[in-house]
Amino acid sequence: MARWLVQIDGDRFDIEELPYWFPSGEIYAVEENSTVFLVGSGLEQLADASKIHEAAARVIEDFYSVIYLIDPGIRRPSVGAVFRENDDGTRHGFAFLSAVASGRSKARASVTIAGSTKPERSRLTQAQKLLAGSQRNRHLQVALSLLSIPNATWPHYYRCLEEIESFLDAKVSEVGLCSASERSRFSRTANTPEASGTNARHGLGKFDPPQNPMSSADGLSFVRQILLKALSLAHAAQPGSQEDAVQ
Fold first, then answer.
1. Which of 32, 106, 169, 170 is 20 to 30 A (C-alpha) from 137?
2. Could you tell me the CA-to-CA distances from 179 to 152, 165, 171, 209 in Å, in that order?
3. Which residues neighbour 45 within 8 Å (Cβ) at sequence distance 6 or greater?
């Protein structure tokens, strides 16, 4: 059957995450001879190759924002050529200019099934659930995009926390996503240049820094874990999703 395919360009280390985490849906990823493509009914609704290329770029941004949340060691690849496959299997392509993303280790391990390295597909993957959770609320969409910004710093981390708390309509510590002391340590570090340097949200002397400030890596890890929990809550709130909650 005729279909559109969009090639994803980048390091294999990064692009192989796509069919692992997004193997189904209106737009999903497949691997053919070590090349990864986006395919699906969501592409078939579009009129021409340029619109398909633009749509694929948005999908990759969404997919890799979630993948990065799961594993910060992953880098976002780029969208390559668009192909039209005919009923007889022949393909013709449309090229678009794009940049390719440049030993790393992964947070996830492959699941081996009958000699292969493909995960079970009976349920949605963790990434699919997290993306579905983010799509339930604009605050969560913004929070997710903030953490996927290259070289994000304390203002991004704190804004992410604010968006999560807007979704919750409460402080994260009040709903059990962290302790009050953890939240205070994070916010006081983010606010004070004595603790976080030039990336602080406020000027010298305005707030007291914590006795044990977080490093930037600690701050990212803290808000990452909070966002994972918030997205899990959002996904679990969807009808019929309780048995398939994010682990």
1. 106
2. 24, 14, 10, 18
3. none
Q: Which residues pair with 92 in a beta bridge?
A: 84
Phi, psi (rounded to 5 degrees) for 39: -145, 180
Cα–Cα distance for residue pair 20/171, rounded to 1 Å: 34
Q: Which amino acid is at 246?
A: V
Model confidence over 29-85: pLDDT tens digits?
999 988 999 999 999 988 788 999 999 999 999 999 999 999 888 889 999 999 988
Q: In sequence order, what DSSP letters do the residues of 56-85 get, joined into one string?
A: HHHHHHHHHHHHHHH-TT----EEEEEEEE
DSSP conformational letter for 113? B
- Cα–Cα distance, 241 to 247 (Å, whole number): 12
| Cα–Cα distance, 119 to 4 (Å, whole number) | 25
The pLDDT of residue 98: 52
3-state class (DSSP) for residue 102: coil
pLDDT band at 113 (very low <50, low <70, confident <90, very high): very low
Task: Choose between 23 and 151: higher pLDDT.
Answer: 23
Contact 158, 53 (CB under 8 A): no
171 burial type by CB count under 10 A (0-12 exposed, 13-18 middle, 19+ buried): middle
Place of tokens 């790393």: 104
HSE on the CB side for 14, CA within 13 Å? 20
pLDDT tens track for 114-155: 333 444 455 889 999 999 999 989 999 999 999 988 889 999
